[in-house]
From TrEMBL:
<feature type="transmembrane region" description="Helical">
    <location>
        <begin position="183"/>
        <end position="201"/>
    </location>
</feature>
<feature type="transmembrane region" description="Helical">
    <location>
        <begin position="50"/>
        <end position="68"/>
    </location>
</feature>
<feature type="domain" description="RCK C-terminal">
    <location>
        <begin position="388"/>
        <end position="471"/>
    </location>
</feature>
<feature type="transmembrane region" description="Helical">
    <location>
        <begin position="83"/>
        <end position="105"/>
    </location>
</feature>
<dbReference type="Pfam" id="PF00999">
    <property type="entry name" value="Na_H_Exchanger"/>
</dbReference>
<feature type="transmembrane region" description="Helical">
    <location>
        <begin position="257"/>
        <end position="277"/>
    </location>
</feature>
<keyword id="KW-0812">Transmembrane</keyword>
<keyword id="KW-0813">Transport</keyword>
<dbReference type="GO" id="GO:1902600">
    <property type="term" value="P:proton transmembrane transport"/>
</dbReference>
<keyword id="KW-0472">Membrane</keyword>
<protein>
    <submittedName>
        <fullName>K(+)/H(+) antiporter NhaP</fullName>
    </submittedName>
</protein>
<feature type="transmembrane region" description="Helical">
    <location>
        <begin position="283"/>
        <end position="302"/>
    </location>
</feature>
<dbReference type="GO" id="GO:0005886">
    <property type="term" value="C:plasma membrane"/>
</dbReference>
<keyword id="KW-0406">Ion transport</keyword>
<feature type="transmembrane region" description="Helical">
    <location>
        <begin position="26"/>
        <end position="43"/>
    </location>
</feature>
<dbReference type="GO" id="GO:0008324">
    <property type="term" value="F:monoatomic cation transmembrane transporter activity"/>
</dbReference>
<dbReference type="InterPro" id="IPR006037">
    <property type="entry name" value="RCK_C"/>
</dbReference>
Amino acid sequence: MNLLLITVVLLLAIIATKISNRSGLPALLLFLALGVAFSAFGYDFNNFKVAENIATLSLMIIIFYGGFGTNWNMGKSTARESISLASLGVFATAIITGLFCHYILKINFLESMLLGSVVASTDYASVSNILVSKKLNLKYSTAPLLEIESGSNDPTAYTMTMVFLSLLSGYSVSIPIIILQQVVIGLIGGFLLGFIFIKIIETLSLDEDGLFSVFIATMMLGTYALTSLAGGNGFLALYILGIYIGNHEFRKKRDVVFFYDGLSTIFQIAMFFLLGLLSDINLIIKALPIGFIIAIFMLLVARPLTVFGLMAPFKMKKNQLTLISLAGLRGAAAIAFAIMVVNSGINISIDIFHIVFVICIFSLLIHGTALPYATKKLDMYDPEDSVLRTFNYYSDKTDLEFIKTHVTKNSPWVNKKISDIEISFNIIIAKIERDGKSIVPRGNTYLRDDDVIILGGEGYFDSRGEDLLEIKISDSHKWAGKKVKDIQIGKNELIIMVETPEKNIIVPRGDTVLKAGDRIVISKESNEIEDPE
């Protein structure tokens, strides 16, 4: 029954994502609504202990992948601004929101500060989802600023949440020492374990299918556990680990991207569905007024006051500051921290879980729908840029990639000097391999029969996965044993590559015969193609 439920939820989540893409509603808001619907229709789940474990693991993956996806080369120009917002900005937002809750809404002071801390950080998953799905190419390096801020500010909110939980429980704590300990050990743990990771993969071969992703997962869990045991901030260590690893080049990196992209999506669905499932519709209605008031206050006062105040020394443009103020989406971290508060066992007078629930709903609804509109209204859209450059997991950048080909006795290049070869495309002969030796190609270097030449050029990655289709030819496949010229495919489709079972790459010609075990890649122009099995 539970497996069937998970199946139904994931299928509905896929449908919700499609609805989001067409309607403009944030997908995470629809996942939240999905959980509420299951709860309202009688699926009873109120195990906050299990929920906390799932929420913590989800947050670990989201924060790590947030760091992994951060393109530091793009982000370092705005690092001071984003780090200021991720640290002092979270602190200021928590304090301003807490003071509002105490003096205006008449909530107990420490409980007000706890609530402000829980909802103080912006959500990486929500921010990146809207930036990418709506293709918000922002001026003045605003996208990387928002990416780094939202990816790195959860640890500050977590530290503040733990501090006020300790104060509410009656423990005598030194706030400066706790913050310093959490930050210093977290930074050291992240950098140290990231350095160890790179050294290990430079030494050991982990090319087996799936093994590399498993090793990264092991390092991720180990980093969080070891840093937390040492008294540091495990979430901060994970973000630093992600940045350190994500900005190094290594084999299998693309496989890791696909693996964690899917895993991160699943856990985002789990987080927001879980929040909806744990909710009580009657308590949601009861928390609506206070949650709405806090959400509006954060939108109109706390976030803008923090952004304009902290960014004043950086002389940023007013329209940029206004847009940054609108990008204060609350989400996964607030959910996880609210569940932690419920499980702490501390008696508080407010229903913090359902208040946070309502704040997240209005934040996603208002910020999520307003951001694309405000981008154009504030003249912050840059048609010459691509937001995908901000993220490491998209290859919309001028990376040099290499392909290998052979010089045969019938090749027009055989026995010619490189300087005499006409290459009309933007590629270069990067290396020549002859008789097991490497040759540096120069203009007067001759190409010989059986040479292996390495060509370099600008890499391309189909980020949507819609323009290229890979098919494996089985024994029963109708293309097995046929020549390429005899295969019936669409007029806008072309077989561009064949990989044999021996891992040899063949550029297909009309008389190339496809065999069982071959993998072929088809390039297309039409909206979709099918594997004619």
